[in-house]
Design a protein that fits this description.
The protein is an alpha+beta fold and about 150 residues long. The chain is built from 4 helices and 6 strands, in the order αααββαββββ.
């Protein structure tokens, strides 16, 4: 991984573009507004395998002692698990659990890079693992999550 502004960028619109998906699942917002609001930038994608996304750590997401709030970091993990599931299955998926281990603090003004990968896939259930790292590639947190295919 490279630091903040040096990271290559993927075209988010192209990554999420899928006319058949939008016809089949009208009303399902891809990319989700929370992905866009988080300032997410896709920096690496290995189809059917992994996705890496860069997030700026925003001042408004700081906890009372001035570091990235843990719940926000959980949301950032979810903002990588979801798009990885979408890019692979082309179906809406929802998280059914998540376990996060916090290791190191991150301050506003820095970037967090989250790389998620599959541990297992079935037609209805996905299990994923992810690592969040800072710009110096130091481990910030790890997460695991199970996602279920959602059929509206």
């Amino acid at each position: 991984m490279t630091s903040g502004n040096d990271s290559p960028q993927f075209d988010t619109n192209a990554f999420f573009h899928d006319e058949e998906f939008h016809r089949k699942y009208p009303g399902v917002q891809i990319p989700p507004p929370c992905f866009l609001d988080a300032g997410a930038t896709i920096v690496a994608h290995e189809p059917n395998t992994s996705l890496t996304v860069r997030f700026p750590v925003l001042e408004k997401h700081a906890n009372p002692v001035g570091f990235l709030q843990g719940g926000i970091l959980c949301g950032l993990f979810d903002n990588v698990f979801g798009p990885l599931s979408f890019s692979t299955l082309r179906k809406p998926c929802v998280s059914i659990d998540m376990n996060v281990n916090f290791i190191r603090a991150v301050k506003p003004g820095e970037f967090v890079f989250i790389r998620a990968e599959f541990r297992s896939k079935t037609k209805k259930l996905l299990q994923m693992h992810a690592e969040a790292r800072n710009e110096k590639q130091k481990l910030v947190a790890t997460a695991t999550s199970s996602l279920m295919v959602y059929e509206p």
